Every structure is written in structure tokens, then in C-alpha cells.
Amino acid sequence: MIMIRKFIIFIGLVLVFSCTTNRFSGDIPTENETKIITILFVGNSLTYSNSLPDLVAKIGEQQGKKIKTLMLAYPNYALEDHWNEGKLQETIAKGSIDYLVMQQGPSSQEDG
User: Fold this and answer.
1) What DSSP string runs through 30-47?
2) How many domains does the structure of the chain reveal?
3) 111 in a structural domain
């Protein structure tokens, strides 16, 4: 459980610090405007039970960033399940996602 929390905090920090530059963004905000960064989280209960999207949004807010999070996360879901379901492709096709965070099952299991 401690390792999962450390991992979640690590991922959150990586995302927030990667959002501090506009090198991945086509739109550079003006001085009085802050771009809203949209992050899609895809995974299973390891993503939603620890409120990873909320954690990342709060860290971003502390850094002066506006972060909107979306989440596709269901119990016992693998990335393959998300792909086969089709909601992932539909969400990405809308074109409003700046970053995609994918989480596969726990690495302690062979299929993870």
C-alpha cells in the first residue's frame, strides 16, 4: 500500500512538472490567460480508489496550473479491456486531451 501511494505521488509530480512548459502544447497562453490542461486517466481501481486525478489537479492548482481531469477506470480492468470497450478511442478522438495517463494492473501479478 505504501508503494502504491509513493507511485501515485510520483506520477502526480511528474505530470504537474511536465505541465510547467508549453513545449507539448500548440497554444501558448497570453500573460493574463492560463491554459486549461486536460488529462485523461485510464486504469482500474488503483487509479480511482486513491483519487489520483484529484491529487494531480490539486498539485497543479498549487503550482498555478488549471488542470481538468477525466477518468476511465473500472475494477479489474486491464488496458486491453479499455481498448476492447471502445470508450478510450472515443474520448481520445474528441481531440481535447493534452495528456494520457495509463495504468495497468499491479506488477506483482504475472499479467500486470
Assistant:
1) -TT--PEEEEEEEESHHH
2) 1
3) no
The whole-number average pLDDT for the span 83-106 is 88
pLDDT single digits (tens) 62-78:
999 999 999 998 888 88
Q: Which of 24-28, 59-63, 102-106 has the lowest mean pLDDT?
A: 24-28
21, three cell numbers = 512548459
Domain that holds residue 87: 2-25+32-102
- Whether residue 79 contacts residue 72, with contact meaning beta carbons closer than 8 Å, is answered with no
* pLDDT of 7 above 90: no
The reply to whether 109 falls in a domain is no
Close Cβ partners of 74 (under 8 Å, ≥ 6 residues apart): 44, 45, 81
Residue the block writes with cell 483519487: 51
This prediction has a pTM of 0.66
The sign one gets for the Cα dihedral 53, 10, 85, 105 is negative
